[in-house]
Design goal:
single chain, 308 residues, mainly alpha, Farnesyl Diphosphate Synthase, 2 domains, 15 helices, 69% helix, globular
Amino acid sequence: MSRTGFAAQLACHGPHAPMREAPSLREARAYCRRLAKRHYENFTVGSLLLPRAMRPHFFAVYAYCRWADDLADEVKSRADSLALLDWWQEQLMDCYAAKATHPVFVALRETVLQFDIPPRPFLDLLTAFRRDQRQRRYETRDDLLDYCRGSANPVGRLVLYLGRSHDAELVDLSDAVCTGLQLANFCQDVANDWQRGRIYLPQEHCRRAGYDESMFASGVYNAEFRQLLAGEVQYAEDLLLRGWSLVARVPRDLQLDIALFVRGGLAVLQAIRQVEYDVWSRRPTLGKLAKMRLVLNTWADVRRGRLN
């Protein structure tokens, strides 16, 4: 969501919005659905190929994550972002205490009750977004992976709860997928992240490639940058492939969407390779035709049981 668009959301549904009655569950779910449908994502959210009964729960979880992400990224002041993230956590706790009034949490309340989801994954996301306000560089890959444990992995764990398949072995596979997707996004968004004052490529890797911060500032595209990003793209791909076996091990209702997440991530990485890692000139994305091919091919593979 743009900063202007999110400012309108804050004015209507933020902590200083006019007092109003809590929306009905139907109204709250419609709000979450609209939020999910109008925001660009690399990967399908709440696919029409999900069972109809599952879609409102995916939309509710997505809306929570979307708001939290925008509170971290679309607010000008770091101090204001931190205060708003605290407010969002208060809203989450009200949700668990059956006192929700915000449309996202009215919808989410039904989801956490139906699927017995604990607060921890939601709280872990907020911890990561607070970290974004304080930390703008990551020295090593291990430092970056530690960030992903809060910023990305909880989303996959929430999906496992929605599939009633949350166990230790599947969590490990889900974490590989989610971290891989997050790293793919970092590779795709080098330019946008720099504009926000952040570098999500490990500093030790930048030094090893000979690509310094002055080059980030100028958006220099050279052999050093290609070498740097090629290594990060390969590592993200390795993680996605490592987690691929998750697809065949979740309930059939979830297989298509999870397969699309993984294949969508792999397609983004391939798009970065196709532009020879020049993510400074433009952000590589998947067009509508490419997404449609992904959906059709993956749907056919699910139908034929070819996801092992």
